[in-house]
Predict the structure of Succinoglycan biosynthesis protein ExoU.
Amino acid sequence: MSGTDVCVIIAARNAAETITTAIASALLEPEVAEVVVVDDASTDATEAVARAADDGSGRLLVLRLDVNRGPSFARNMAIRHSRAPLISILDADDFFLPGRFAKLVDGDDWDLVADNIVFAEHASVRDVLSGSIEQFAADPTELDLVGFVAGNISRRGARRGELGFLKPVMRRAMLTEHGLHYDEQLRLGEDYALYARALAFGACFKLIRSCGYCAVVRSNSLSGQHRTEDLRRLADADLDLLALAGLTAGQRRVLRRHERHVRDKYRLRHFLDLKASGGLSGAMGFAFASPTNLSAVTKGAAFDKLELLRRRNPSAMESGAARPRYLMAGSAAKAG
């Protein structure tokens, strides 16, 4: 294999309706030497559909887990079963845009390199597939730990757009050197935790604004579903990062901000769980147990009510036809 060969990893669960498009988009890229699909104990025909997507090139490997272990376990398993020096993650309901890797893997000035993401509502996927997306100039920049973590602190009322959505190509040698892998305790924010740890160890994360990845927004997407416990574990992952030696004061500050941000989400969700299971009395007992609990619950509940009102009264722009949106703003590409 050459140094620019890519292994595309797809962790899939109940993705029979979408995985053909995902696999096909990967196999169409000439830089892709391997596609490893791990069916995470699907209850539908994901495994069979994935095998049927084989193009005969010998690059597709489909593995199956009999017990659901989560995306981190599935991705680690796929990495162990692959050999290519570059690793790229693709979610089972997303797809690559043609020519993505030719723009990404050129050069050796990076350990991770990511491009822009177009988020497509189901109604606008056809537009994306037809090439009706904006062409942004690459404008390469380097993303550091402070900027990355700060970019994952979302704002209430704003569309989700955290930098944790980035799908970088990663050098296997970098992961091996630092003993990096996906945290199998996490089923939420596993990408964030891995990238943040790599940056803490000094990895170079290159970012370009040209778009090569399409994330399809679906109401039933597994990435949009998480348990209250998943939030607590993600907040704990920040504490693990804070325990690393050698962090600067600025890095520690932003990690604490992110930990509080996620922990407050956990506190609100835990309050609502207690209310649903045991009534208001037990939930209020939790809320008044500490000032931090009370602040998280009152602020979170108020913001949630405002968000509900906003959704009931969408603006004219929001109520129009679904249009692709982008993770990062960019300037128009210059004509070649």
In short: The longest strand covers residues 205-217. Residues 316-320 have pLDDT under 50 and may be disordered. The chain has twelve helices and ten strands.
